[in-house]
Amino acid sequence: MDNSNVYHVPALLKESVEALNIKTDGVYVDVTYGGGGHSGEILSRLKNGRLFAFDRDRDAVNNLPKDKRLIFINNNFRFMHNLLRYHGVTQVDGILADLGVSSHHFDNGERGFSFRFPDASLDMRMGQDSDLTAQKVLNTYPQNSLKRIFFEYGEIKRADRLAAILVDSRNQKPLNSVADLIESITPLIPKSDEKQFLAKVFQAIRIEVNKEMQSLKQLLEQSLKVLVPEGRLSVISYHSLEDRMVKNFMKTGNVEGQQVKDFYGNEISPFTIISKKAIVPSSEEILFNSRSRSAKLRIAQKKMMQ
């Protein structure tokens, strides 16, 4: 199905919202509003409850329904705890996060998220108020920093060579457009796996520009403060770095996965894991929405106070 004119087709919609175990008078948070798909599903299950929706992209404002139960916060979810307090909320019954990039970002040629638009500026900012762009990363970061980004965030084996080529290229002329970037790294692009290689390169740069891993870490840590006992955390991730962080946090209460034990040697965790294995889209959903194919949903419930 062609979804090119849709802001974003939400992945694992029913599964991720059902995971919240919604109470009709509860308070919930959708930290990645986007096109409003998940938020709409949450609202359909509320009566007197409230939904706080976050999105750092100004374009998301265009998707807001007229619903007094919805409070939209045009900001990064890394500030969730303080911004909820600003609205007089200290605890919520559930948090949903649909991580990654929306279809809108990939399909908007002006934003530079996709290698399909060679004339696009190297921007890649999810929030237009940020000063850090892909141009700045590629043209000013030291070679060792570029190597780290491509190795850690893109899991690219020849990250050292890639970083070196980019530095050589920018010394000849600035890397300003998607075409400039692709042209500079063409010698490294494998002919048999061109799209996958470019996807890894763009993913690595995008993660750095938007500080995605740092934001996710802060969100997860704040979820422990914000969730009520027996509150639910429902997180959809799209690549192994995110999924590993989410899995570790739900299992141990920290993103590093360091298991804490009590005096008697029993493992301590603030969560009960609801989904023992990651929930993935059905073949029917992937056929309808091909971008959902890498989605993984993990669900956890905050334990009662001991």
Considering the chains and any ligands shown, give keywords for the structure:
single chain, 306 residues, alpha/beta, Rossmann fold, DNA polymerase, domain 1, 2 domains, seven-stranded mixed β-sheet, two-stranded antiparallel sheet, 12 helices, 38% helix, disordered N terminus
Q: Which stretches of 5+ consecutive residues score pLDDT under 50?
A: 1-5
Q: Which descriptor suits the 3D outline?
A: globular
Tell me the quaternary state: single chain
Task: Compute the number of structural domains.
Answer: 2
CATH superfamily of the largest domain: Vaccinia Virus protein VP39
CATH topology of the largest domain: Rossmann fold
How helix-rich are the residues, as a percent range? 25-40%
| Number of helical elements | 12
Write out the strand line-up for the largest beta sheet, numbering strands in chain order.
3-2-1-4-5-9-8
β-sheet strand percentage: 5-15%
Largest sheet: 7 strands, mixed
Distance between the termini: 49 Å
Rg measurement, Å: 20 Å
Based on the coordinates given, report the CATH architecture of the largest domain.
3-Layer(aba) Sandwich
User: What class do helices, strands and sheet pairing give?
Assistant: alpha/beta
Q: Would you list the SSEs in sequence order as H and E?
A: HEHEEHEHHHHHHHEHEEEHE
* Overall mean pLDDT: 93
Secondary structure: number of strands: 9
What is the CATH level 1 assignment of the largest domain? Alpha Beta
